[in-house]
Amino acid sequence: MASRWLPDGPIRVRPRTGWVFLACTMIVTGPVFVAAFMPARPTTPAIATLALSATAIAYIYFVAPRIVVAEDAIRVQNSWREHVVPWGALVDIETRFNLTLVTAQHRVHVQAAPSPGGLTAMRSRPDQDRATTRATGRAGGAARPGDLPSSLSGALAAVIRGHWQDLVETGAIDPDQRVETTPRVTHLALSIGGPALALVLWLLA
Q1: Which candidate, 130, 120, 124, places its Cα nearest to that of 157?
Q2: 144 class by beta-carbon count within 10 Å (0-12 exposed, 13-18 middle, 19+ buried)
Q3: pLDDT (tens digit, 9 = 90+) per residue, 13-62?
Q4: Is the pLDDT of residue 104 over 70?
Q5: Could you give the 3-state DSSP secondary structure of residue 42?
């Protein structure tokens, strides 16, 4: 039976403004890359490599993060590490700076779901449904900006809290489940290897 919180299957979310930040980065790195070849000189390979590396790192940091909320587990793909958080491993959900899944092992910060700024909080009203009751009660009746239903972190937190509560009430939680964390090897290689290669090429120029 499908969860009432996930009626259309898993929820997949990436940062809303990721492509905007990547485009801003490319406004700088694009001309630098082109200028490196006008004219070509001994430092051209180093400058071109650095420009490409900066673009790749911007993609990794701003666009690549993702969270997938499914009935079996929550998969958090941050820039350089991936976490699989089973529902039984959850202890709490926080939204102070970004959506954070608190487990007995450690806190899993979700890069793809940052909390909104103060201006967004002033323009919005916290909802009062069961999914955010615990969050609003924690702050004396006023939800944190990250719990607002109009924010990405708040919307995801409501779904996660709601589905988690349903699992607890039906006894479908296995408290012995643990978080699995693995590095995103390709992202690490590009983030470290690119600048390192640019430095070596510069020293050899």
Answers
A1: 130
A2: buried
A3: 999 899 999 999 999 999 999 999 999 999 999 999 999 999 999 999 99
A4: yes
A5: coil
- What secondary structure letter does DSSP report for 111? E
Report the distance separating Cα 19 and Cα 17, nearest Å. Answer: 6
Q: Which residue has the tokens 């990436």?
A: 14
pTM, full prediction: 0.83
Q: Please check whether residue 129 is in contact with residue 158, taking contact to mean a CB–CB distance below 8 angstroms.
A: yes
How many other CB atoms are there within 10 angstroms of residue 28's CB atom?
Answer: 13
- Measuring CA to CA, which residue among 134, 120, 131, 133 is closest to residue 157? 131
Angle at 198 between CA 193 and CA 199, to 5 degrees: 100
Which DSSP symbol is given to 143? -
Write the DSSP string, 88-104: GGEEEEE-SSEEEEEES
- How many whole angstroms separate alpha carbon 110 and alpha carbon 102? 11
Alpha-carbon distance of 26 to 33, in angstroms, equals 10
